[in-house]
């Protein structure tokens, strides 16, 4: 194993919310950054046959916390961080729950041979916000195009829905007698954005995928 | 015991380094645990390849009276092999997560070693004599025809070259669904506990086919899981008491006399969060990676990502001492989260008199804190400063804008070089520091 020195890029020291630490915008950017990194880690962990339970729990708790701090754009102001509460309206809970349920089910279900995880991303600087700004610009473009009456079907025109339908069947998203999510292999949902369940209660696994909800989540996140 | 942070009467100096010098480090050679035995005579290491290497302290040499003796290889054996769980289609790593010595009761030495799923009891014994003059077999082992035996003799013991044998005496398997993170020998010398992410089991050293589950935090619905067990240890004197730490920064002390299942703790240790330092990563950095009782049994020490805390067992609401290990990393948590360093699990250890504590950091730095003088020191385990009897120079990380000479800036730290495992000799000022695939041994310079 060849080692090479990894260095930290200078990053903003604004780790805390609030006006004294750089303002609402910087805080929101950090929140979105943490959210996207957490989601990426979650997806990477899904590739592993047996991810670390400690790591998964910490990432899922972080996701919950980040989502709990999300405020609607019209109310965007630096809120104080709230600790995780038992608020049943947490939209992230179902997806996060799927992490832990999948972890448990992996102990009972068979799974393919382990695959090599993707190499970790190099260190990024929070102050190097170019990536974030480009990403935000992309989001804005998507939002504006969404506002010009593009239907959800149009947005997914280029997607091979045959793959999507098969994966939906694997996840039991069609009510055709497919096994419930708890019994599924841990990483059966390759390529299918599992955060589609963010806006759905846990029982909606069997109720089908709401494309409009999916599009809404993609744009808003 | 003298203070750790330098001064006129105490200085740390390099003694030995074990392991390959190559820049290319084989994954299997990475040291995953380090442990002195009760007397300090033996030092065991486990690595990711499932091997255990035991070093033995040899007596001081008359030529170099100012140094204590060296540690040389005593025994090497393959403790665990990689396994495949066919039922679950999962590979079980051979990496040695923990080694714990048993108190010595006869000439042989015993230790427990564990990977993610299986604990093994090993006997390490010496053989320096062999019997000669058997009546029923020749020296090469061939049997003698009984009809040819015309007289009887008593076999005699003849000296032979010392041979150290390691043999597995017990295998404790199939009791952990999740990954074992801790094992701890009880003070009764008959039982020990093993802990995984969600459960803690109590074993008897003589019985391998069953264990008692004493803690189970697995929720009925895994969707409700928000906390895991990260470490556990038996009290050094009270065989009914043990503690376990969690990923939320809490420690629970349990009394096995209270109930068969110790889900309800006797004491609950948690420090209130400082609201001014709250961030998205507050919970992750509060996750406790190690918990160790003091030798006296009155205190315990916990290690989280940025600090080491000493707790008085009689006070649950806050630690009595807090030591910042690398506070300069607090402003870098975003990057450390992204590159996964924030999930690193550092261990900590006490010195023999409980007057000092030690833990590791990045850039091959390790930190020592003197509890009496409140002084601390940062030292580095590096080949560059590995000259015989060379005194280690204290290191410093610059956090401000101006970097002084000999200081290293935070942005220059090498986060691949992490000291996760350290051990302190139970009686002397000798320490063992694992730096990836190298084991450094340092000792004080006796003046």
UniProtKB/TrEMBL annotation, chain A:
Q: Known PROSITE patterns for this protein?
A: SERTA
Please list the residue ranges annotated as the SERTA domain. Answer: 27-74
Name the domain of life this protein comes from. Eukaryota
Annotated region Disordered: where? Answer: 1-20
Coiled-coil stretches are none
GO cellular component entries: nucleus
State what protein this is by name. Answer: Cell division cycle-associated protein 4-like
TrEMBL record, chain B:
Q: Tell me a Gene Ontology molecular-function term this record carries.
A: protein phosphatase regulator activity
Which stretches does the entry tag as region Disordered?
A: 381-404
Q: Which domain of life is it from?
A: Eukaryota
Q: Which UniProt keywords apply?
A: Repeat, WD repeat
* Any one GO cellular component localisation term in the record: protein phosphatase type 2A complex
By its UniProt entry, which SMART domains does this protein fall under? Answer: WD40
Q: How does it assemble?
A: PP2A consists of a common heterodimeric core enzyme, composed of a 36 kDa catalytic subunit (subunit C) and a 65 kDa constant regulatory subunit (PR65 or subunit A), that associates with a variety of regulatory subunits.
Sorted alphabetically, which PANTHER family does this protein's record hold? PROTEIN PHOSPHATASE PP2A REGULATORY SUBUNIT B
Q: Describe the family membership recorded for this protein in Swiss-Prot or TrEMBL.
A: Belongs to the phosphatase 2A regulatory subunit B family.
Q: What is this protein called?
A: Serine/threonine-protein phosphatase 2A 55 kDa regulatory subunit B
